[in-house]
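Q: My labmate handed me this sequence with no annotations at all. I'd like to see what the chain might look like in three dimensions before we decide whether it's worth expressing. Could you predict it?
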Amino acid sequence: MKRKLALALAVVILAGAIGALAADLTQAGAEGRQAVLAPIDELDVLVQESFPPRYVVHVVAGLPSGCAQRDRHEVTREGNTITVTVWNTMPTGDVACTMIYGMYELNIDLGTDFQSGATYTVRVNDRTITFVAQ
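A: Here is what I predict for the chain of 134 residues:
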């Protein structure tokens, strides 16, 4: 009987310790990440059939390791130049990560405010593409 009680007590203590460790790791993971620019593997501008035409930039972004996570994107426009910044997050500190390269796709709406016949430049991180509005 004493053995069963001691074993049950050890299991409860071990489960509590594992739960506390998991909570600590989750908290460290949430706080221990930093935003980094995502590598851009593919870039294209698509025209949706509407009136006026709606433009979408199709982006294939990379996740350069098993620790990388997609984060967010931001769009700004100045004249005929649209700048899209795509962010991933990576852990801070010395963390072991698998060297598996992943990818994800984004379709980012650029809107309809384009003058027919004008040339526009879309910059996404380190990649650039131009198109002529319809």
